[in-house]
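Cross-posted from the bioinformatics board.
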Amino acid sequence: MLKAKKIVDLSHPLTAETPVYPGDPVPSFSVATTVDNEGYNLFNVILGSQTGSHVDAPYHFSNTGATVDKMDLRFFMGNGLVIDVTYKKAKEQITLQEVKAFEKQIEAVDIVLFNTNWYQKAGTDEFYDHPFLSKEAGEYLLSKGIKTAGIDAINLDNTGGTEFPIHDMYSEAGGIIAENLANIDQIDFESPYIIFLPLSLIGCDGSPVRAVAVDFE
Amino acid sequence: MRVIDLSHTIRTGMQIYPGDPDVAIERALTHENDYCHVDRLLLGSHSGTHIDAPLHFLSDGKRISDFPADKFIGKGVVLDVRGKKENEPITLADILPYEKQFERGCFAVLMTGWSEHFGTEAYEKHPYLSKEGADFFVEKGVSIVGLDALNIDSTVSEIWDAHDTLLSNDTLIVENLSNLSALDPSKSYYFSFLPLKLDDTDGSPIRATAIEAGNNF
């Protein structure tokens, strides 16, 4: 029987202060019941479908795309490859050449994650000036059969622009994008198994997730 | 590897524990008016398939964010306790045939079959775990106990023995599982009951899954 030797938590904490994409719903938490009054504690939880660490279903960018509840769970778990691009500066593209250098490894996995370390800037203005994936690099990943791609920044496309080529192509391809991941730099073992299962939200464009990288024996 | 979804679909107006916050999914951004689609999720910390932390019943108990992610992924024993009548306890005698399968830190998943009543009044009259059964799981070092019913205690009597016993020993509880009939009690599964990383709450909605692993995960 398989056994998890180590699990790295790839998720941001969800609080009222969790930074959201400009214009998205703001998360909030409030007391619903208490031990003193009703006998048990319970909270109201208000989140956006894209709050904190989350996954995007094709419907996020396409009216005809699949909603998150219709996606096969295999899109949200699989063997992962981490590509280190921590040398990237603000608003710099991750190029085709930089991704292509990992061709052999990409062919062996289901999920590709980009380690920018930008998650550490959460709470600052610079958080939104993250590196992003170039159109050519996205097309290359899809051509290699990578239907799930993730990043430890708030967006796999450039934030602040009006073009979302990676979202458009992943939506068109029926794939999944995981954003706002954290701690990818803490994965210190080979062949991480990645899990970021969405809530089963009917008709939704995406879901907040608890993302993890597992080191199985 | 086979992945089995054990979660109810989260939808506006779904059945909840009496008095819990109503569930609603609202449009926040739409394709017609915005560059993409984003929803606003109004949930309780125990909406749909969910996990309870000790804080749910103990004011000084641990919060869901106090447990590392590895608490929520593990091997589980499936106990077939179907055939119970309304509001009938799951006794120690029901559990003892499975005694040899328990290892410290594993999960126990009680298959009552009651999830077929989800959405009806009968769903509130589910079987429940007896105090003796809860004591047994604590003694065996079971880490999480789950079941496919609204509540691990009786919703009719509102006596909270199982919650009190399990949560006071940091044994977590998963309620409102679905689709357990897809599992074979003679097999062992890996389960993922990962919560959202909700700071300071007493629990979280989850996407519960069972993983039937072959030689390659």
